[in-house]
Amino acid sequence: MTTSVRGDQLARLLGRWHALPGRRRSPDYAALAAAVRGLLSDGRLALGVRLPAERELAEALGVSRTTVSAAYRNLRETGHLTSRRGAGSWTTLPHGHRVATSGLWTPDDDLDMIDLGVAASAAPVELVPAARAAADELPRYLGSAGYHPTGLPELRAAVAEAYSARGVPTSAEQILVTSGTQQALDLVLRLSVPVGAPVLVETPTYPNALAALAARRARISTHGIDIEAGWDGEMLLGALRQTRPRMTYVIPEFHNPTGHLMPASLRERLVATAHATGTELIVDESFVDLPLDGEPMPPPVAVFDRHSRVTSIGGMSKAYWGGLRIGWVRASAPVVQRLAAIRVGVDMASPVLEQLVAVQLLRLSAEIVAARRAQLRFRRDALIAELRDRLPEWRFVTPTGGVTLWAELDGPISSALSRAAEDVGVRLAPGPRFGLDGTLERFLRLPFTLPADDLVEAVRRIASVRHDLDHATGPSWRTPAVIA
Ligand SMILES: Cc1ncc(COP(=O)(O)O)c(C=O)c1O
């Protein structure tokens, strides 16, 4: 199904397109086309979206229709737009590009790119031995069809045991194994959020959660997370009371992207308020295994749940490996059955072999997670040292866990900087990707999941293009690398 964007919506997304850094003498139509490409390349405008009619966009932007016509023509020439008489114009992927896991458009031949768009690590060394051991276990399952819509019993039991060990007594029947945390979120939304229902999310937040909510056509309102202080408890609970959302999505452990850890007291009040306002809480625990500085962890949000208001989701992508595609939902046993019924309409079940690999890895969780934490601590510290050295005017709080650092830049330059960085071989996910309305231009997420040398090199390159942005002469609104 093609979705469309209205003129006023696109105008809002485009923001100050005519006055962005680096633009000097390029004509309006070229700047407009470049700004639309920018939205496409950083994922704020999706593929297959119908753009407004030329006259409508011209009105919304306060420019002539000729300017919009020329911009659309330019976008068609670069492969970003396809038009058909009578049917309109919709966004397309130019030849030679693909959509990356981050949702960003990337050239096919970019092996040398340092990719800071993805906040996930390479596999641990234990993965291949675990896969071999899993293959040895496989014959036990080969005599049946292999479809287990709720997950393999032994994996469900292992995940339930880990919850119980964290202080939330859980039985295997309360666990649904999914294809990553992303599918867990999608299934829970399908069950709990009718089309158009009000939901509350943090801003900034995880972009693919916003994408899942957009697919439900949820009516989204936001709670702002401060770069230094994190959640403002009064504001968050106040927002719940005022908007009485059907559902609230939070990432309380080492929040992506800010890295904040929600204190125990707010967890307890959040659950109580959600109960009072009739709101379901979806708690994304993607980073719960990754405290980096030995701090004591607050209890899981579900500990405070006495009225079945909390659905927890999590998975193995961050502490183990994203390529496994193993995630889960923790809910009541009847809800798990309802989710499984929805799930069979999507992908039937998770692969048996991968689930067996997951069981093997969870048996080694103590070693694997300890090594991952040590690796991330080292990489985080290397990133921070280089940032302090090369970009001392950027402001951030050292994250005490997780995999991301949220930096406040020295100006509203995140998208321009990301486009410039792409030209020197660094892929960034600019701040506005993590919000709804393009307002996070002063911020940039920097994951520390790559090797320290790559992070150091990336910061050097970013610092050099940051300098160039201020000193650009002539028409330097460069075409983003993604469109070649
Ligand atoms: C907060 C959050 N939720 C969900 C996901 C998706 O994880 P998975 O790979 O398990 O689907 C991510 C991955 O970056 C994430 O950061």
Automatic annotation (TrEMBL):
Keywords per UniProt: Aminotransferase, DNA-binding, Pyridoxal phosphate, Transcription, Transcription regulation, Transferase
GO MF assignments: transaminase activity
One Pfam family this sequence matches: GntR
Domain HTH gntR-type residue range list: 26-94
Keyword DNA-binding: yes
Annotated family: In the C-terminal section; belongs to the class-I pyridoxal-phosphate-dependent aminotransferase family.
PANTHER family recorded: HTH-TYPE TRANSCRIPTIONAL REGULATORY PROTEIN GABR (PTHR46577)
Protein name per its UniProtKB record: PLP-dependent aminotransferase family protein
Species annotation: Actinoplanes flavus
